[in-house]
Design a protein that fits this description.
Shape: globular
Order of helices and strands: HEHEEHEE
Number of strands: 5
CATH topology of one domain: Muramoyl-pentapeptide Carboxypeptidase, domain 2
Radius of gyration: 15 Å
Largest sheet: 5 strands, antiparallel
Strand content: 15-25%
Distance between the termini: 24 Å
CATH architecture of one domain: 2-Layer Sandwich
């Protein structure tokens, strides 16, 4: 069963995502931030992990079941997509406001200023839609 944001997400993370959404939308005209996934079960994580390995499609995660912060209940992680004039932007090259800076980088910098970990900085397998609370934060 998929639990959409904010179900089964730590309240502190829900508040920070709300703040991030407001700040992002103020700084990137024409764009909105749409959180779409918080908690996911181990079965859902296994299904995502299989993609690009034993199931068709690109690899979308390196985390096996139990290795993702999405697998905690309540979740310590949220995925959010940028929406530009009503269209979801999955490309890391999205630049809704035309300022020459990709919108996921703008989102990530704002998230980091709020104390969140942004998956776009991960070495080896960056995940620009991923946001999470730092270890030890409740």
């Amino acid at each position: 069963m998929t639990y959409p944001f904010p179900e089964h997400v730590l309240p502190a993370l829900v508040l920070l995502i709300g703040t991030l959404t407001s700040q992002f939308e103020a700084e990137v005209p024409g764009a909105t931030l749409k959180p779409y996934m918080g908690y996911r079960t181990h079965t859902e994580q296994a299904d995502l992990y299989a993609q690009g390995r034993t199931k068709p499609g690109p690899i979308v995660t390196k985390a096996k079941p139990g290795e993702s912060n999405h697998n905690h209940d309540p979740s310590r992680a949220v995925d959010a997509v940028i929406v530009c004039r009503g269209v979801k932007q999955w490309s890391v090259k999205a630049d809704c406001d035309g300022d020459g800076v990709n919108d996921y980088l703008e989102m990530g910098k704002l998230a980091e200023r709020l104390g969140l970990v942004w998956g776009g900085r991960w070495k080896g397998f960056p995940d620009p839609v991923h946001l999470e609370l730092p270890v030890g934060t409740r």
